[in-house]
Amino acid sequence: MQASGHLHFYVGTYTDSPSQSRGIAKVSLNQLTGELVRLDDVYPLRNPSYLTQTSQAIYSFSEVAQQEGAQLVCLQNQSAFSLPIEGDYPCHLDVSPDGHYLAVANYGSGNVSVYSLDNQGVPVSQVANLVEEGRGPNQARQQSPHAHQVVFQATLPRLVSVDLGSDAVRFYDIVEGEFNRVQSVAMPAGSGPRHLVFNRAEDTAYVVCELSETLVVLSLLNGEWQVTQQVDLLPESEKGEAASAIKLSVDERFIYVSCRHQNRLSCFDVSGLQVQWLSATSSGGLFPRDFTISKCGEWLIAANQHSNDLTSFRRDPITGLLEATGYRCSVDAPVCVVEPS
C-alpha cells in the first residue's frame, strides 16, 4: 500500500491565560488514518479567534477590546501587515469574491468594519462602518447588537451580517463603494443567530441560532428573504444556549452544526423540501467551538475549546454520518479550523 498524503489545517486559538497557545497554529491530517499531528505555529498573535484565507493572504485579528489593541492582520509569505480595528472583540471576517473588500464583525461593539484591499490583498483603510440598533428578549445576552458573522455573497455584490444581539440577519448591497442595507430579516425572538451558510444558488440560507439552539432556514421568495423552517439542533436534548458552527457539505445534501453545551456534532439531511435531523455524534472533547469539513469531503475536524484538542472523523459522503477515528491533537483553546486554499 502506498503512503497516504496529508492535509493541512490552520487553527485559530485563544492565547490569554490559562491557554498556552501563542497564536495561529497548524496541524496535519493523515489521509489514510485520520491521525492529527501538531506542526510549527504559523504566526504569533493574541487571540486570533477566527481566520480566513485567499490565494493572496491569510487574514485574522486579535479578539480584544479596541483600547487593548484590536487589530486586523494580513499575512503574506514572510510579511505581516496590520490595521487597527474600530470595534470591540472582533469575532469573524470575510473577503469579497472580487478581492476588493474585507469585512469584520465586532461582537462587543456590535458594528461591522469594512476595509478596502489593494491589488496584493493588503488592507488599506476602513471604508465603511455599519452600525445598527436593536436588542432581544434574552436579558443576559441581547442588551445590544452583537454582530457575529459577516459573509459576502458570491452571486451578488452584497454583504450579509448575522447579529446575535438583535435577532437579525441584514443584507447590504454594495454600489460604487457604498454599503446600503436592503433588507433586515427578523429572526425568531431570543434565537440569537450566530452563523449562516448559503447554498450555491444563494436562494437558501441555513442559520444556526446560538441561544435557542435551533436551525432556521431562510428562503428567497419573490426577491425577499423569509423564515421558512425552524428545527431543534438536538431533538429532546437539554439546551444550553451554546450552539456554534455550521457547515454545508459540498454536495449540498447535509448540514452539520456543533453544539458546545452537549459536546455534540449534529447532522441534518437538507436534500429534500424540508430539513430532516439525522444524527448526533460526540465531538470527542469538550465545547466544540468550531469544525471544518475537508475540501475532499472525507474528513471532519472538530476544535474542542475546553478540552484543548482537535479530533478527526471520517465522513460518509452517502449517508452523511460521522465516525470518530480516535485520533486527537493537543492545541490549547482551539476555536477555529480552516483548510488552506
Rg result: 19 Å
Indicate the percent of residues in helices: under 10%
Please identify which CATH superfamily of the domain at 1-41 and 233-341 we are dealing with.
YVTN repeat-like/Quinoprotein amine dehydrogenase
Unreliable runs, pLDDT <50, ≥5 residues?
A: none
Q: Tell me the distance between the termini.
A: 28 Å
Major sheet description: 5 strands, antiparallel
Q: What's the order of the H and E elements?
A: EEEEEEEEEEEEEEEEEEEEEEEEEEEEE
The name CATH uses for the topology of the domain at 1-41 and 233-341 is Methylamine Dehydrogenase, Chain H
User: What is the SS-derived class?
Assistant: mainly beta
Overall residue-averaged pLDDT value:
97
Number of contiguous helices: 0
Tell the overall outline: globular
* Architecture per CATH nomenclature, i.e. the level-2 architecture of the domain at 1-41 and 233-341: 7 Propeller
Number of strands: 29
Which strand-content bin applies to the residues?
A: over 45%
State the name of the first-level CATH class of the domain at 1-41 and 233-341. Answer: Mainly Beta
Features of this protein?
Methylamine Dehydrogenase, Chain H; mainly beta; five-stranded antiparallel sheet; 341 residues; 29 strands
Structural write-up:
With 341 residues, the chain is mainly β. It has a domain at 1-41 and 233-341: YVTN repeat-like/Quinoprotein amine dehydrogenase (Methylamine Dehydrogenase, Chain H), CATH 2.130.10. 0% of the residues lie in helices and 53% in strands. The protein contains no helices and 29 strands. It has strands spanning 6-13, 23-30, 36-38, 43-44, 52-53, 58-61, 71-76, 79-84, 90-95, 101-106, 112-117, 123-130, 147-152, 158-163, 168-175, 178-186, 193-198, 204-209, 214-221, 224-232, 243-248, 254-259, 264-269, 276-282, 288-293, 299-304, 309-315, 322-330, 334-338. The strands form seven sheets. Strands 1, 2, 3, 4 and 29 form a five-stranded antiparallel beta sheet that branches. Strands 5-6-7-8 form a four-stranded antiparallel beta sheet, with no helix packed on it. A hairpin with a 5-residue loop joins strand 11 (112-117) and strand 12 (123-130). The radius of gyration is 19 Å and the shape is globular. The relative contact order is 0.13. The mean pLDDT is 97.
